Amino acid sequence: MVAEADCGPARFYVAAGQVVLCPEACGALRAEGNAAVDVLFTCAPLIQ
Prior knowledge:
Order of helices and strands: EEH
Number of strands: 2
Strand order of the largest sheet: 1-2
Distance between the termini: 10 Å
Number of helices: 1
Number of domains: 1
Structural class: alpha+beta
Largest sheet: 2 strands, antiparallel
Helix content: 10-25%
Low-confidence stretches: none
Radius of gyration: 12 Å
């Protein structure tokens, strides 16, 4: 799992039950006029 300290330009992390975009990812989305984020989730465990 990504933590805030592991942030990068295309990453996010979960804090207090909220999905938080890393600053670089947030900045890239804000720079795009019509940017959108799709959030897909599942309750199934992830295989890493």
